[in-house]
Amino acid sequence: MARKVRRPDTLLRHWFPQVPGRRWCAAAAAAGVLTATVSTAVAQPSPAPAATAPATPTWRVSATNVMRLESWRYFEPRPGGGEPDYTFLADRLRVDVRGHWARVDFTLAAQYVGMAGLPDRAAGPGPLGTGGLYFDQGSRASNASQIYLRFANLRFPAVARGVDLQIGRMGYLSGTEAPSGVAKIETVKRQRLDARLVGEFEWSIYQRAFDGVRVDVTRPRWRATGVAFMPTQGGFARAASTTMREVVVAGATLSSRPTSASGRKTQLQAFGWQYHDARNVTQRPDNTGRTAPGVDIDVSTLGATLLGAYPLGPGEVDLFAWGVAQAGQWYGDDHRATAVALEGGYQWTKAPWRPWLRAGLFHASGDDDPACRCRPGRAPPSGCASTCAGSIWRPPPISGTPAAAPRSLAAPSSATPAGGRTAARAWARRWRPRRTTRSRRASP
Q1: CA distance 137 to 143
Q2: Which of 257, 279, 292, 301 has a CA 20 to 30 Å removed from the CA of 319?
Q3: Is the C-alpha dihedral spanning 167, 169, 172, 178 positive or negative?
Q4: How confident is the model at residue 208 (pLDDT cuts 50, 70, 90)?
């Protein structure tokens, strides 16, 4: 008799009940960001050595509140379209509970999101800014609220020599798996690399998490990370805690760990991702204008990253190089694509305000004719032989970074006074191939 195997997605549950929507009162929230932290530890008869983990649990409770006012004046729609001008208020409160034992770390976080004044006519056709998205995907209510499970996971450090295991609902930002220990590299990484492929959609008020497992293997000169998970819906949807069981993402990253005591620092990363999507959604996020009975996507991504920071004269040079190649299936069509980003900068670290000038070039492949339907195992349509290489893409469910043109040139700059805020300015030029391209970006 065949052995019954339980599907992996049945092992995950929605740990936190959904609370019915209730009217949200702006007067109950304080403007800005408020953070409060309370820590408690059980007293011990004698202090333990610094290198020994505590025998009794240590608990930490923290709360963070973010209030955001968005005022939109979107592009004018066609006659008879929606209302492009509106203002709404959003508030996000997160409460974290963390526990630490000798061999396990526990994290539990609940998040509340409330919105007031969402526009009910900010569409026509398509959403006119984020207000229309929040309204349409939030039970079509102008005043909506939701409380849901943000994180719930267990982390087991040192389950073997240099091996850490994490399981449950967690956050994840691709590109940040291995801290370099170099301040400039970490700054460039935060601005230009993390969540480039997989992220928590941090810009959205609801954000996103991942249900699954993560394994880290750390050695003195390198760190390897492997993950397999299913994302929560999040994004602009009010049902942010729902696990998208039809979407499975798996990936691995190998990162070097700079150890040189000199000022010359370089970090290298190699990564691979597999993205599978079989949701019952008929809308296609491309420019073909065709419908589909459901999502049918399987894409593999391989790539590498170089980050460097080197002293030069009165300042420091930074380098960033990133490249990916993709192959797979997109709604039954053969998909192949590439993308490359090259950037560099110089910061005068000893000058007043520490000015920082950077420039970069981004190139992504694209179809010359979006009407070409290239299917595996079949001859391409007439006139499409040279355009069946697919386009770079990034599915909206996994990452929230805005799309870029197939080719773009940018030169951002910034200045930071001692102990002050950073002032930044960016210049960019984008151009497209002669013919229409599909607007997709790199994704797992």
Answers
A1: 13
A2: 301
A3: negative
A4: very high
Q: d(Cα 426, Cα 418) in Å, to the nearest integer?
A: 21
Q: How far apart are CA 307 and CA 189, in angstroms?
A: 8
| Strand, coil or helix: 26 | helix
Q: With a cut of 50, say whether residue 376 has pLDDT above it.
A: no
Cis peptide before 258 (omega within 30 of 0): no
CB of 412 closer than 8 Å to CB of 429:
no
User: CA distances (Å), 397 to each of 198, 200, 366, in order?
Assistant: 10, 10, 21
**pTM: predicted TM-score of the whole model, two decimal places:** 0.75
* CA 327 – CA 322 distance, rounded (Å): 17
> Residue 185 in 3-state DSSP?
helix
Which of 201, 190, 228 minimizes the C-alpha distance to 212? Answer: 228
Give the residue extent of every domain in the chain.
Answer: 12-41+54-149
pLDDT digits (tens, 9 = 90+) for 291-347: 788 888 999 999 999 999 999 999 999 999 999 999 999 888 888 999 999 999 999
Contact 390, 332 (CB under 8 A): no
Give the span between the Cα atoms of 213 and 219, in whole angstroms: 20
- Residue 250: partners with Cβ closer than 8 Å, 6 or more residues away: 226, 227, 228, 229, 273, 274
Q: Kind of pairing, strands 297-312 and 265-277? A: antiparallel
Q: Report whether pLDDT(166) > 80.
A: yes
Give the pairing type, strands 265-277 and 85-100. unpaired
Contact 99, 56 (CB under 8 A): no
Both tokens assigned to 172: 């994840």
Q: 125 preceded by cis ω (within 30°)? A: yes
SS3 430: strand
